[in-house]
Amino acid sequence: MACAAVMIPGLLRCSVGAIRTEAASLRLTLSTLRHLTLTSIMKSKRKTDHMERTASVVRREIVSAAKVCGAASESPSVKSLRLLVADQDFSFKAGQWVDFFIPGVSVVGGFSICSSPRLLEQERMIELAVKYTNHPPALWVHNTCTLDSEVAVRVGGEFFFDPQPADASRNLVLIAGGVGINPLLSILRHAADLLRERANKRSGYEIGTIKLFYSAKNTSELLFKKNILDLVNEFPEKIACSLHVTKQTTQIGAELKPYITEGRITEKEIRDHISKETLFYICGPPPMTDFFSKQLENHHVSKEHICFEKWW
């Protein structure tokens, strides 16, 4: 096993019936894509730039044109996008990210995919969620991007969950901080697709239980909480979540209250889920990922069962 589709509420989207027509019309020439890619890489100079941080990370060769066909505000600081991907050979594994090439913007973005691979297979779409920062690609997403804006994307990343049908059944513990939920939501959605496939076809990978621990400043910054709770309710014996808020100042709504803990995710909560059959996926700020990966190692969890990615 490598360790390394639910709709977003309110997301504007293309008509499913028009997808093939849209994809056929969305074609950047190979020379344009190559120029866009090389120019962006050469001009990405900041030490914190995505291209420099991930220079040694494996990427797919395909750079595909894509069109923005949906957008929504997921929180006061996070905007989600739905992209129609032109290249039929474009694919990804749950948990991976994309290099995000924007015409006219010299810096390359790096955004985790938050949708399931199944959505791409069925509708040729992927979903991203981008936090507002002063980084040029994020500024473009929040201030300039509109429906029908055209970009290019390329898949990369060694943080993913891609079990094969014959692999041993594993439990998953997903630990997210802030926008670190994005790749873990992709994994959670993929796990739900595997559960549906198993229930409908009596075949495919047999996944164990999935527990999501997710921490944010307050409930308004808990992204995709409705999607998460919908999955918990759909698979109550398989999927569970513990949502943490660290600086909540308003009253917590009745529908969320049973799932909310005020305060940080604790070592004890994670320790209680340690077993030989469990894989741990961690994504959040560097201090958080460092802390939990170290604690798991201290409790003799195999390094092969600890997968983490830091967001910056």
Automatic annotation (TrEMBL):
KW Transferase (keyword) present: no
PROSITE patterns: FAD_FR
InterPro entries according to UniProt: FAD-bd_FR_type (IPR017927), FNR_nucleotide-bd (IPR039261), Oxidoreductase_NAD-binding (IPR052128), OxRdtase_FAD/NAD-bd (IPR001433), Riboflavin_synthase-like_b-brl (IPR017938)
One GO molecular-function entry: oxidoreductase activity
Spans traversing the lipid bilayer: none
Name of a matching Pfam family: NAD_binding_1
Keyword terms of this UniProt record: NAD, Oxidoreductase
Gene3D superfamilies: Nucleotide-binding domain of ferredoxin-NADP reductase (FNR) module, Translation factors
Name listed for the protein in its UniProt record: Oxidoreductase NAD-binding domain-containing protein 1
